[in-house]
């Protein structure tokens, strides 16, 4: 039996005859099972998908009825398996599976003609939009979107193949439908140019450039820029590289002997969600994983990302960091934000070196795969991850032909050509067991020793080290022999430097190498680089290969130097942390420098285990969004926490949304941080105010701490409606932070000062403050702050009547906050979208936004937020003519406003009540309420600006029309 989902749902027998599947719900059940081709779908999930919020009285019984009817149509293909049902179907029995298989074959094809034919066949399977009968159903949306993205990718690939063949693809229609796809536009522009239509090609480039700027705020990618330049120069080559979303490193050398392995792994990842490459160190797991992932970049619409794990890594923080999710977006835990970020993404994660963190890595992968149905994971580890559904793929050593080829190519690159067919080369590669790392290391020595001498040395080494470590795999023993042999070739200065470099984690600078090695490192280091024992990274930074580092560490211990060198490592990195100017004009540069050294700082802290370094690093951890790392570090200390560290740890817990007891402290900086954390988390505004007042009551304090406390008090005052205090404190804090040159501090004053400008109707100043804040947030990589500043700009666009810009800015803010898992930021943006929808008359959309925000605010116990939301919901009810609902909502809003003590919130509720009463016919009382609201606003120096008078003016007009006298 064959199934079609690339268009309206269809079922055909093996003979091609149509098979009738009656009833919409039964067809929807089939579509749901086809979405999960060959995978079990839980009964709960199926019931939720079929009936959503309108569940039958007994959904499980109803589901069983639908399953029975589907079985009658399909025979025994629908099988019950805990916890639900599965459709037993081969991948290519579904047209979407056949489509995927043809795309995979096309990607592997070296010949453009073959590639074009396969892609043409794949695209011919489409009869309309994927899952066309159920386009409005949530359960097919992600699969349909992925299929459509794959279709467009196939269209682009076919166009490129036809161009390669000298043919002219007709792309005008698809370009008109998808004008912002850069790869598609590049193919179209090349086709136009090749057809002799150079001016049209240039016009299409300019059209794309303008659209990208206007609609997305982006410039064309480098490939398109290169293509445009080539057209202007009439370059016959006209090559253009596709833009890709990945952090995979570009290979320095070609991979040898792994083409079949890459092809097999690509096919596995098309059907398996977790594939683990296993094998000994040096066998080439990482290189094979990266090569495979690089070929799949176009297959994953949301990117292919490499995450490298080190000893004692926080795996959640490591993955989040690669995906750009900061660790300081209260109150949602980092893990939850990571899961939310990947939930609907079509992503490939490459998790490297999992053997260091196999248990936490397994726990995280299980959660990720359960939460994100479109996620694939390709892992490397010396042992399996150990999850159900894992596909283990042992990485083999190279066969004789590939091993000799690899050795010969690397030797030639080092200036010593060898004949790969020579008997001694074959013997050498055989003795090295075809392990790529061993072959690479040997090739760096052949120039000095020649192949015969290499063989002689290997013979001596292996005769001594044949047993290796008990229980170790044979290949690991061979790699150890290779490393022992490499060690024997080093001079004593080189050995000293190599073994002492091993205490670094994730590389080091030359300065760090000199300090920790405590010898002249320059010449030995250069020779170690030449011999491929040390890798040079951008910076420059110097890093040992993993196996080399492990070996060198053992040599360091054998030399009796391990503790002394680790102490120097600790001294250097603790000194670096202490010298970091994280408050002041060099703040951004120092944060980035410490980011590069984070793994070394962690290692130093683990070695020292003292409070002093943890306290020194605490502000860096906050600025860089590494709050969970701070908690881990404090928990691991070998001495009791002092008051400063207790306060810091409590603040970190608060900022990540956890409830903790607030410790007593007399330290002003600790008091400020606790007050700041209590305010930012919304945990206890009163306690926050008491702590901040305590800081400011002490005369002669540290200027930075005073400025920081003033910025918090300004925001507190704004929430309470004390505008004079908010303005005085905000402006003073801003001036002090500017004098100190501290960007983070200046950023903290943006919210209260921009809000005050907005209240006063000075929208130009409010916009300037928000734009400055956005720039500073982006420079410091404080993406949660950046999202809030975009929301601020969106609110100003709304007030100035630019609804399109307002919606765009609020959407950008919402998406940025969502990528960070910053739920509060999403809520801020959602409010802006609700305000815009109501002001444009879309009351249903406004209410949908507002109801979600209201529930979140209630859960977070954030009364200031709900004062506004209740007022907005009340205005929606009034505009619908529902006086009773409006009255109830505004009455509730007035209670909340009086509780928080904000006169402006009270005035807003009174204005809402005036609208409700005027709608109900109580015109005199409505007039009195409007007068009381105006007096309250005037009393605090915040009369309504003209742009915010829409609701009041509407009520006043209604009262005038009724003949009611207005003051």
UniProtKB/TrEMBL annotation:
Residue ranges: DNA binding: 1-98
SUPFAM superfamilies, from UniProt? C-terminal effector domain of the bipartite response regulators, P-loop containing nucleoside triphosphate hydrolases, TPR-like
**Which is one GO molecular function term here?**
DNA binding
Q: Where is each OmpR/PhoB-type domain found?
A: 1-98
Q: Any idea which UniProt keywords this protein has?
A: DNA-binding
A Pfam match is BTAD
What processes does the entry annotate via GO biological process terms? Answer: phosphorelay signal transduction system; regulation of DNA-templated transcription
Q: Which PANTHER family match?
A: HTH-TYPE TRANSCRIPTIONAL REGULATOR RV0890C-RELATED, REGULATOR-RELATED
User: Its family?
Assistant: Belongs to the AfsR/DnrI/RedD regulatory family.
Protein name (database record): Predicted ATPase
Task: List the taxonomic lineage.
Answer: Bacteria, Bacillati, Actinomycetota, Actinomycetes, Pseudonocardiales
């Amino acid at each position: 039996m064959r199934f079609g989902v690339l268009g309206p749902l269809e079922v055909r027998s093996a003979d091609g005859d149509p098979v009738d599947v009656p009833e919409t719900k039964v067809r929807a059940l089939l579509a749901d099972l086809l979405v999960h081709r060959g995978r079990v779908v839980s009964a709960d999930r199926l019931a939720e998908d079929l009936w959503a919020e309108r569940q039958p009285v007994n959904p499980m019984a109803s589901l069983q009825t639908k399953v029975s009817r589907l079985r009658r149509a399909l025979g025994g293909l629908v099988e019950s398996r805990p916890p639900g049902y599965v459709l037993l179907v081969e991948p290519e029995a579904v047209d979407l599976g056949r489509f995927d298989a043809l795309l995979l074959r096309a990607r592997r094809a070296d010949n453009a003609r073959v590639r074009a034919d396969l892609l043409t066949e794949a695209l011919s399977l489409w009869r309309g939009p994927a899952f066309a009968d159920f386009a409005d159903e949530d359960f097919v949306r992600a699969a349909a979107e992925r299929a459509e993205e794959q279709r467009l990718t196939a269209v682009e690939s076919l166009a490129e193949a036809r161009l390669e063949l000298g043919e002219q693809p007709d792309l005008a229609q698809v370009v008109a439908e998808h004008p912002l796809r850069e790869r598609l536009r590049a193919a179209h522009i090349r086709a136009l140019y090749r057809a002799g239509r150079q001016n049209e090609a240039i016009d299409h480039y300019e059209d794309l450039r303008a659209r990208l700027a206007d609609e997305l705020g982006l410039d064309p990618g480098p490939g398109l820029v290169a293509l445009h330049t080539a057209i202007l120069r009439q370059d016959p080559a006209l090559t253009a590289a596709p833009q890709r979303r990945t952090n995979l490193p570009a290979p320095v050398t070609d991979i040898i002997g792994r083409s079949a392995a890459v092809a097999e792994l690509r096919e596995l990842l098309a059907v398996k969600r977790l594939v683990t490459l296993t094998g000994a160190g040096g066998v080439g797991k990482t290189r094979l994983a990266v090569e495979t992932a690089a070929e799949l970049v176009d297959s994953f619409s949301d990117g292919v990302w490499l995450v490298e794990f080190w000893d004692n890594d926080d795996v959640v923080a490591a993955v989040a960091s690669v995906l750009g999710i900061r660790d300081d977006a209260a109150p949602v835990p980092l893990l939850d934000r990571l899961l939310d970020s990947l939930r609907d993404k079509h992503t490939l994660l490459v998790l490297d070196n999992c053997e260091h963190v196999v248990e936490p890595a397994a726990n995280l992968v299980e959660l990720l795969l359960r939460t994100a149905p479109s996620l694939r994971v390709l892992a490397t580890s010396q042992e399996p991850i150990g999850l159900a559904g894992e596909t283990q793929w042992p990485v083999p050593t190279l066969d004789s032909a590939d091993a000799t080829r690899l050795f010969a190519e690397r030797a030639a690159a080092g200036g010593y050509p060898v004949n790969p067919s020579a008997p001694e080369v074959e013997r050498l590669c055989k003795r090295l067991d075809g392990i790529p790392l061993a072959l690479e290391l040997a090739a760096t020595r052949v120039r000095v020793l020649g192949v015969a001498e290499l063989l002689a040395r290997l013979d001596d080494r292996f005769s001594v080290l044949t047993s290796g470590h008990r229980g170790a795999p044979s290949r690991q023993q061979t790699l150890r022999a290779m490393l022992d042999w490499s060690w024997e070739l080093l001079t004593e200065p080189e050995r000293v430097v190599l073994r002492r470099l091993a205490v670094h984690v994730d590389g080091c600078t030359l300065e760090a190498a000199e300090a920790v090695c405590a010898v002249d490192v320059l010449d030995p280091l250069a020779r170690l680089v030449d011999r491929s024992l040390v890798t040079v990274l951008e910076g420059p930074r110097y890093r040992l290969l993993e196996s080399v580092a492990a070996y060198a560490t053992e040599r360091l211990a054998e030399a009796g130097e391990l503790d002394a060198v680790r102490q120097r490592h600790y001294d250097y990195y603790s000194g670096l942390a202490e010298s970091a100017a994280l408050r002041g004009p060099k703040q951004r540069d120092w944060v980035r420098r410490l980011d590069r050294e984070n793994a070394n700082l962690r290692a130093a802290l683990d070695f020292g285990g003292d409070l002093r370094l943890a306290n020194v690093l605490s502000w860096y951890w906050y600025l860089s969004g590494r709050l969970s790392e701070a908690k881990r570090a404090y928990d691991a200390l070998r001495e009791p926490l002092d008051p400063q560290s207790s306060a810091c740890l409590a603040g970190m817990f608060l900022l990540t949304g956890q409830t903790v007891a607030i410790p007593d402290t007399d330290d002003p900086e600790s008091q400020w941080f606790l007050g700041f954390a209590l305010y930012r988390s919304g945990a206890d505004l009163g306690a926050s105010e008491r702590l901040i007042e305590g800081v400011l009551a002490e005369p002669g304090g540290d200027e930075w701490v005073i400025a920081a406390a003033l910025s918090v008090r300004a925001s507190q005052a704004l929430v309470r409606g004390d505008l004079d205090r908010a303005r005085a404190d905000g402006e003073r804090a801003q001036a002090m932070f500017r004098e100190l040159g501290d960007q983070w501090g200046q950023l903290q004053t943006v919210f209260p000062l921009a809000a005050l400008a907005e209240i006063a109707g000075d929208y130009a100043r409010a916009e300037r403050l928000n734009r400055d804040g956005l720039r500073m947030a982006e420079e410091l990589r404080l993406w949660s702050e950046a999202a809030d500043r975009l929301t601020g700009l969106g609110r100003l666009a709304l007030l100035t009547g630019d609804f399109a810009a307002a919606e765009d800015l609020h959407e950008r803010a919402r998406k940025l906050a969502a990528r960070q898992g910053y739920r509060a930021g999403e809520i801020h943006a959602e409010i802006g979208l609700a305000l815009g929808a109501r002001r444009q008359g879309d009351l249903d959309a406004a209410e949908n936004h507002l109801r979600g925000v209201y529930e979140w605010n209630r859960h977070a116990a954030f009364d200031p937020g709900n004062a506004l939301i209740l007022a907005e919901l009340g205005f929606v009810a009034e505009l619908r003519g529902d006086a009773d609902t409006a009255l109830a909502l505004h009455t509730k809003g007035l209670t909340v406003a009086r509780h928080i003590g904000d006169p402006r919130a009270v005035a807003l509720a009174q204005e809402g009540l005036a609208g409700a009463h005027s709608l109900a016919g109580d015109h005199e009382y409505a007039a009195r309420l409007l007068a009381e609201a105006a007096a309250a606003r005037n009393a605090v120096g915040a009369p309504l600006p003209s742009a915010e008078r829409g609701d009041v003016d509407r009520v006043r007009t209604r009262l005038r029309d009724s003949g009611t006298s207005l003051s």
